[in-house]
Specification:
The structure holds 2 protein chains of 2 kinds.
Chain A (H helix, E strand, L loop, with lengths): L2 H14 E6 L2 E6 L1 H23 L2 H17 L5 H22 L4 H30 L2 H26 L8 H18 L3 H23 L4 H21 L1 H4 L30 H5 L6 H26 L2 H11 L1 H6 L4 H27 L9 H14 L4 H17 L7 H15 L16
Antiparallel strand pairs in A: 1-2
Helix pairs in contact in A: 1-2, 2-3, 2-4, 3-4, 6-12, 6-15, 6-16, 6-17, 7-8, 7-9, 7-15, 8-15, 12-15, 13-15, 16-17, 17-18
Chain B lengths: L8 E12 L2 E12 L3 E6 L5 H8 L7 E6 L2 E2 L5 H6 L2 E4 L11 H8 L8 H11 L1 H5 L10 H13 L5 E5 L7 H18 L2 E6 L2 H7 L2 E6 L2 E7 H6 L1 H7 L3
Parallel strand pairs in B: 3-8, 3-9, 6-7, 7-8
Antiparallel strand pairs in B: 1-2, 1-4, 4-5, 9-10
Helix pairs in contact in B: 3-6
The chains are: A mainly alpha, B alpha/beta.
Chain lengths: ~450, ~240
Amino acid sequence: MPAFRIAAVLGLPLIGFKLVDQSGGEGLATRWPDLGAAIAIVFMGRFALSMIAEGATLSALAIGAGAVIAAILVPWPSVFLNVIALGGAALIVLRAAYGLAGPRPVAVIGAWVKPAGRLAPWALIVFALSLPLFGDRYVLDSATRITTYVMLGWGLNIVTGLAGLLDLGYAAFFAIGAYVTAILGAGFGLSFWECLPLAAAAAAASGVLLGFPVLGLRGDYFAIVTLGFGEIIRIVANNWRSLTNGSQGVGGVPHLNFFGLADFTANPANGHPSFSQMFGVPYRPIQRVVFLYYVILALALAVNLFTRRIRVLPIGLAWEALREDEIAAQALGVDRRRVKLAAFAIGAAWGGVAGAFFATQQGFVSPESFGFIESVMITAIVVLGGMGSQLGIVLAAILIIGLPEFFRFMQEYRQLVFGAAMVAIMRFRPRGLIATRRPSVTSR
Amino acid sequence: MALPAVGAAMLEIENVSAAYGPVRALDGVNLNVGMGEIVTLIGANGAGKTTLLMTICGRPSAKAGRIKLKGQDITALPTHRIAALGVAHAPEGRHIFARMSVRENLQLGATLAAPANFARNLDRVLTLFPRLAERIDQRGGTLSGGEQQMVAIGRALMAEPDLLLLDEPSLGLAPLVVRQIFAAIGQINRERGTSILLVEQNAHHALALAHRGYVLVAGEIALEGKAADLAVNPQVRDAYLGG
């Protein structure tokens, strides 16, 4: 059956009719233009692909280019169809151009990958550092959010990427760090900087507590126990009202100050000078946002440097050896329990630090922020990034956290783009965005 | 009969039995390896050769009997503690770290050795296996079978072991490579005095290299003696040397 006829049959009930509220009950509205547009898109797409298959690549390129222009200029019945048309047309153009580019376009692209891979980290750091120069409040808030997830990804990477332990409850350590900071901050007036080491210590201690009994478990069983641990922490936070205020959450977490020297308000009440007075610049509310962004960026880069250093030390090598082949590693004298426990505790500590930052940034902490989906997001970032690649994790975090943000204009359809992106990665990069592992030590 | 001199034995296996769940794999095995000796253990598929090496390493640990290393009872110790006492194992199927470079594999072998000796030990391994020097930054998984076997043995040597356990180093290798590997094993024994327990199906090569040998049949020691004697034993010739 030709593709457009399948589209018509499937599209008739799915697109053609819509349930609407009318006076006196529900009724059916028809959406013939939408249906027609959808069938036209499928028809043109299939037509162009067939032309490429028949060798009429140039004509297909022209059709694709025409469709791109049409997608931009012609008013479409809905934003969704518009995006589909644009995306489909762009794919046709790329496919046709790929066919025209000669026998080995893959080799040409491959030659670019290596130098680009070497430059990309530095380009990303320069971009991240200069972002406050041109970003507005919304961009900076989004960047702070993405960087928080990059940090969580890098923290979990120590556990999952290096030591090979699939931890599905990493958000628990994030939660512990956040609650320690919120409770000590709101209840006892401790600042973020004072809470930071305490949050890290509390998270590491809980990591050891959880890790000690379960690190003997293998693969899937370990993942299930950590999943349960994540839920336990959330449920405890929800029900231990005297400490955590239950589902209402802990509010009034002190705002981040400038290393305990100055505050980011116009006229601080606590005797500190304000940041603007201290540096003799005019007061602007965005100063606090910029500082928050730089703090999370510095914390995230600290995890990155830490991981880089520890990878070349014996403990880091032992982690990777256990991930690669547990039996061989033990036969070489690696103490499986102790080495894994170290990975778990260190990874948890970084999660706690990220949690402390989250608490002070939001000023409010509640169990809602630490659900199972958070753990899944962080694990997805590490797995999609390529299990162990730090650059891959940055790309995956931008994709997973940034993409839904970027496609906000598509409203509910943005989850569809998100899903499509996930499927595309699994199809084309099944071992993660950056799956190659560079040796920690080379002789060159 | 006089008692053996104290310290003469590197490894003493006394009446050891082992099982995987209800399946009995070893039944009352007695085996000794003297200081500086090469002992080979030959036998058919499924005789329990690999199980015996794994049992020495504590995984699975022996159900009955005792295993002593340099007079110390190691029967109930965990694998990494046994390794720390001077046992290095180049396991069957090599088990090298496929995604890690040759250098990283060798570094991991040195987990238990004094860091000050690292450069010297690395140099020794690369002299023994010059091929590894050429491949030093290559990932383990991209090496040929013979090279992977060299990594497995070299990695074990990095720990400066007193006792080296080798599980079928000739498995799946071309005859020329097998000769190289066996020459290297002899060299290790001569130059360092390392005691070696060599498990092999290739009885011809193994008996030519070893001082003494044992034949394992269905989890029990069927024959033992000088390697040269076993090589001419009609039973061994029929069963393991192709007549």
